[in-house]
Amino acid sequence: MSSFTHIANDIPKSLISADLAERRKRLNSVWNGIIPGMVLVAMITGVAFSARNVSGFALFSPMILAVVAGMIHSNVLGTPAHAIAGIAFSQRRLLRFAIVLLGFQLTLGQVVAIGAGGVGIVALTLGATFVFTVTLGRLIGVDARLAQLIAAGTSICGASAIVATNIVTDARDEDVTYAVASITLFGTVAMLGFPLLAPVLGLDQHAFGLWAGASIHEVAQVIGAGFQNGTQSGEIATVAKLTRVAMLAPMVVALGLMARRKNSDQASDQSGARPPMPWFVAAFVAVVALNSLVAVPAEVKSAMALATTIMLTMGLAAMGLQADISQLRSRGLRPLALAFSAFLFIGSFSLMLVKFV
Predict the structure, then answer these.
(1) Phi, psi of 270 (to 5 degrees)
(2) Average pLDDT of 150-167?
(3) 94, 193, 196, 273: least buried by Cβ within 10 Å?
(4) Are 355 and 204 in contact (CB under 8 A)?
(5) How far apart are the first and last CA of the chain?
(6) Do 346 and 133 contact (CB within 8 A), yes or no?
(7) Rounded Cα gap, residues 337 and 147, in angstroms
């Protein structure tokens, strides 16, 4: 014991003080960096969840409300400089983990439940809508990255797809916000309007559920529209929509490969960044496989669904905090026209497949 005491006494006090100072510096760095921004993001997330209790706002997901609340805070009150690091952390890391957790909402058995024809309709609609939107965006002069975000949000799964796609496209925060806003607008129109069209179009519950799941943007919007037309419609619509969500992984991988090839073709320009292949896509596929092979308790799935929604909401709140309304206005009406055209295309194309295939 005396030998340990002797050794401790031989350590210069200056080294101990330097070590303590270094630890204190690291703690201060964390506090002054990540924590303030995450606290601000968490507050806005809480506002978004609370706002859904207000009459009229229940139609919107907390993710959408968080974007709006973040934009209002940023453009009215401003965003503190010491919160920027935490906001960036919420926008990048939390969103990636949220997309991985989406895998707990899907099993391969659910995909099989809608049949090969249903999967084919979903896949054809997704692919055709994405190509149509990107092509039309190029023709009318919409920035390519913004057009890809709108295409992903329309064809796959709304805000979640926009966030995942942006990890490989690396668009501006204002472009992400614009895409989320436009997708929300037309997805809400579809959620409210499509059930009214079911009897006019002569769609039974199975056909309407497949149409809603293949064409409406957000998962929550699909569920709202589907169950409004009946229980069977709601169940089929949900499965069809989750099948679209599963196709998020190959779509993001394809976009990453395209971006990497484009940069390799421009090898003479060394300033071009090499986009990373998204690790979260592989993790998403692994979670879907796990969820398909292992009986995950309902309580765990419920907890994962809540955690996913919270993290997605925090990520989108962070995006809202970094969105500049003046820059959104500078994008003009062309991206909005593109989103509207994509909305009309996916609705009519999927309806044609449901009715005649």
Answers:
(1) -70, -10
(2) 85
(3) 273
(4) no
(5) 84
(6) no
(7) 11
Question: Per residue in 84-105, is it b (16+ CB within 10 Å) or e — as a string?
Answer: bbbbbbbbeebbbebbbbbbbb
Tokens for 316? 């989108």
Q: What is the pTM of this model?
A: 0.67
Other beta carbons within 10 angstroms of residue 300's beta carbon come to 11
With CA atoms as reference, report the closest residue to 160 among 267, 255, 248, 289: 248
73: amino acid identity, one letter: H
The radius of gyration of the chain's CA atoms, rounded to the nearest angstrom, is: 23
Q: Is the pLDDT of residue 6 over 70?
A: no
Q: How far is CA 317 from the centre of its chain?
A: 12
CA distance 266 to 271: 9
User: By three-state DSSP, how is residue 350 classified?
Assistant: helix
Mean pLDDT over residues 12-23, rounded? Answer: 53
For every residue of 192-207, DSSP letters joined together read: HHHHHHHHHHT--HHH
- The model's pLDDT over 18-54, given as tens digits with 9 standing for 90+, comes to 555 555 555 455 555 688 888 889 999 999 889 888 8
